[in-house]
Structure formats: structure tokens, C-alpha cells
Amino acid sequence: MGRPSEQVLSRVRIVETALDLLDEHGEGFGMRDLARELGVRPSALYNHVENKEDVFRGIREVIAGRVSTRELDHEPWDDALAAWARSYRDAFAAHPPTIALLAVMPFDPGSDVFASYDRIVGLLIAEGWSRAAALNILVAFESFILGSALDAAAAPDMMHARGRGDVPNFTAAYAERERRVAATGAAPADQAFEAGLELLLRGLRAEQREREAGARAAS
């Protein structure tokens, strides 16, 4: 028997093709569009996915699988969080339509994402934060990361005031940032992300030092 002329259909192939369609057309594509792109009948898709929502759940798993968690095993907690945040932002910024879609979509209870969440929360608990505080920190980081991913997808000159003279502080700041872009090659969105990430980490470091100083004083 000869080899099949088409690549074997699988959930992974369906989801990755759907991600391509999402990047190109947004979430308005249907299952028939997906089947057409794959060169199969729509009914063939349902051997591997339940419906379009299930396809989107699969896309979340694909994106989440591209977020590095390696540093959580061996780096200091703040360096590990920074590396995770950068990887998370890059994974979503590479596919802008996924940001608004997945940011509000309920998680499947069986999602692999929870394993990385568990590691982040565990890392923070080990550094002295309560369980509730650790979860709030995780969500705060996610909010910042996803917003930064959207910013990375925006036009670099989105905030250009176009020569307005009535906002001198803003226009001077914008011009200074442009000079920094020219000098360093760092895109405006990257500069803003790194500044925000450092502010978050600096606040956590200060909180940890204050907590440890209070514990020493009480002992």
C-alpha cells in the first residue's frame, strides 16, 4: 500500500493551522475555513477537536508551551520571574490576535498552564509571600505582560503628538525616548516593558526586605 498523499490529520496540526488563520484573519474564521485550509472535510476535524472553542483551548496550550519556565528551577526568584515574564510576552506578542481572545477565555481545568502557575506561586510562597498574595502577584504580572504584548504589536509611533505645542512635557519626553531608540536600538515597546518589569520587581524586593526586617525586629 502506498503512502498517503496528505499529512496525517492530528489535533496539533489542526490547532497550529488555526493559529495561522487567527493571525491572518482574526477569530472570525469558522470550522469550514479551517477544514478547507487543511484540505479535509469539516467532519474530519471532529475526530480530533470538539468545536471551535476547543480549537481555541488548543491554541492557548500551544502558546503556553512556548513560555519558558526553565529559569524557575535554578535562578534567584526575581531573575526567574523576569525571564518568565519576557518569554511570556514574546510568546503572545508573536500572535497579537491571541491576546484579547485568550486573556478573557475561561481556562480548561485540565490545562497545562496550571502547572506553570503552580511553580510561580510556589516560588513566591518560598520567598515569604502568603498564598493569596502570591496569586495576586501572579495575576498582576499577567495583566502587565499581556498589556505589554499588545503594546509590542502596536505601531511604534502610535503616541506621536505630531508637533503639538500645548503638551511640551509629553513631546519633550517623546523626543528623548526617540533619541534613546536611535542610540540603543531598543524599540519603544521594549523600553516600556523593561521599565515596568523593573518597577514590579523593585517593589517586590522592597516588600520582601521590609518583611524580613520586621521579622528580625520582632525576634
Task: List key phrases describing it.
mainly alpha; 68% helix; 0% strand; flat; disordered N terminus
Task: Give a verbal description of the structure.
It is built from ten helices and no strands. The chain is mainly α and 219 residues long. The radius of gyration is 22 Å and the shape is flat. The termini are far apart. The model is unreliable at 1-6 (pLDDT under 50).
Q: Which class best fits the helix and strand makeup?
A: mainly alpha
Cα end-to-end separation: 78 Å
In N-to-C order, the SSE pattern is HHHHHHHHHH
Biggest sheet features: none
Please bin the fraction of helical residues.
55-70%
Mean residue pLDDT: 92
Supply Rg. 22 Å
Q: Are there runs of 5+ residues with pLDDT below 50, and where? A: 1-6
Number of DSSP E strands: 0
Strand content: under 5%
Oligomer: single chain
Approximate shape: flat
Number of helices: 10
Blueprint of the fold:
Blueprint: H1 11-25, H2 31-38, H3 42-45, H4 52-65, H5 77-93, H6 97-103, H7 113-126, H8 131-153, H9 168-184, H10 188-218
Helix pairs in contact: 1-4, 5-8, 5-10, 7-8, 8-10
